Amino acid sequence: MFGPSYPIARQGQEQTPLVLRNILSYVSAMSIRPILIHPDPRLKKVCAPVTDISRGLQKLADDMLETMYDAPGIGLAGPQVGKMQRFFVMDVSAKETEPEPRVLINPEITWTSEEVNTYEEGCLSIPGIYENVTRPAMVRMRFLDIDGKQQEEEFGGMAATCAQHELDHLDGKLFIDYLSAIKRGMITKKMKKLKKERSRE
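The structure corresponding to this sequence follows.
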């Protein structure tokens, strides 16, 4: 997501030169992957669970982090780079701090708060579009980390929104699916036009 996803939300998306230099140092051995743009059909498919945390998957996660930072964004899911596996990367650290890259494999929500938050979300697969989406303010997620160890963690604020946004990607759901049919149609039309323009470049 966020991040632009940036999922998502615009808050804190811009990076300072110093932080960007730190990030680029961290990802120096990684590669930038092309990001799928809506309405690519792969973005609407449910992803299969990860069954093997191989070196290939670890390299893919590294590449996705570099792609996310370069976009720039704060979250990116497997299907957004054409990999139909249940995992995503995220980093919602403040722009003045060191990056805190995360990899969540086979994530599942085990609890959500009754309290909700509304953020202006965006998505790297739907560039330039931002709309308010309301989600639980806190969630607890169970997942495997990049070392294959099971973790369970609570996320709040922007992290909660980002994690939920990215989990939606793994289930073939986009943030615009929370909008009215009319708004979805208008956004889809804009994205189709954008893809045509890019294909001519």
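Residues 133 and 179 are 8 Å apart (CA to CA).
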